[in-house]
Amino acid sequence: MTTVTESRRAWDSRDFRRLWTGSAVSTFGSEVAELAVPLLAIGVLAATPGELGALRTAQFLPFLLATLPLGLLVDRRRRLPLMIGADVGRFGLILVIPLAVWAGVAGIELLYVVMFLAGVLTVLYQVADFAFVPEVVTPHQLVDANGKLAAAQSANEIGARGFGGLLVQAASAPVAMLVNAVAYLVSALSLRGIAVVETARPAASARPSWAEVTAGLREALRNRFIRALLGEATTFNLFNEVFILGLMLFTVREAGLSPVQLGIVFTAGGVGSFLGAWFGARVTGRFGYGRVLLITLLLGNTAPVLVALAGTDAVETMSLFCAVFVVMGVGIGIANVHAVTLRQAALPERLRGRVNAAYRLISWGAIPVGASLGGLLAGLTDGRTAMVTGACGMVLATLWVAFSPVRRLASIDEATRLSRAS
């Protein structure tokens, strides 16, 4: 019994600890930038709602354009060097932003280009990371590993976003971007210490066919469990982007929240996500995978509707948004851990990178669409209208799981057996 218990602890693996450290540090920098980039655009470059929407579009457009070919690349090459290269590349690109601001040559167009290129490398890193985790830990450690990675991300949402708001207010947005760049470099150094011998890949010289490139897309749409999760994620991301863009404009320009107060709001969401990621496995083990997933999605995807009650008083708005983000974070934190684990466990290793790439192509590809729609809606109306519209749209995302076989699953193992038998 002791051996089985130990075998489920991902933390026992030295390589996983290095992977976790790299992921935690890079996520910290990214979360700082989540506030720093839009605040830099709004405050330093005086971006209009349309320009802010275009910036978010440029940042996430790579998920539409680059995901499938990068997914094939991940399945044909060693994942760890790709992750290290992506980190080093992002360090160099993000460093350009503060240097350009301090040199007086920064413009919104430069921000478009840098964030687009950094987005391409982010796609590469995330697709490779998803496929690499199962090679670092055993199958029995996978849920624990994903839980710890998600908990680190949630903890960063707690600390990094609040720190980012404080840093922008106390120093400046360019300084916050410098922190983001250095975090990617530290992540690359941590990943270099991993000694995993990766599974052999097909010969890199073999010319890929269109069928190979699209194999992950076909598998993602064929698998009834992954298809439902994909529909939920796509709908959520589309409307969440409208919601967040409207929220940024409403809180800064209409409610008058300071960068620190805005950071506190996002920190509240991180608290909820951390709690969900940390305790999610226990709850699911007791009540069943499908049932808990449906309830937590309903909770997380419905809570944002309460922002419709917001007024223009900064303190009251901050308090309301903090409560909404905590509830939203708990629901999404639990759901994300188990959705990721299901996608990893139910797929053959040879397709894992491409299926994840296809999943991100569709679900994350909805983000630039949502950013464009949000910018257009906010420009035609105002931030509040865009925010409330996005919140109402997010409720629809739960329907994908509510009317799918996912809600009847008792465990991840059951989904794995049914997926491989079909």
TrEMBL record:
Q: Where does the record place it?
A: Cell membrane
Q: How does the UniProt record describe the way this protein sits in the membrane?
A: Multi-pass membrane protein
Instruction: Indicate where this protein is primarily found.
Output: membrane
Membrane-crossing residues?
20-47, 53-74, 95-125, 166-186, 228-250, 262-280, 292-312, 318-340, 361-380, 386-403
Key word Mitochondrion present: no
Q: Which PROSITE patterns match?
A: MFS
The residue ranges of the Major facilitator superfamily (MFS) profile domain are 226-422
InterPro entries (UniProt xref)? MFS, MFS_dom, MFS_trans_sf
**What keyword terms does UniProt attach to this protein?**
Cell membrane, Membrane, Transmembrane, Transmembrane helix
The entry's protein name is Predicted arabinose efflux permease, MFS family
Organism per entry: Jiangella alba
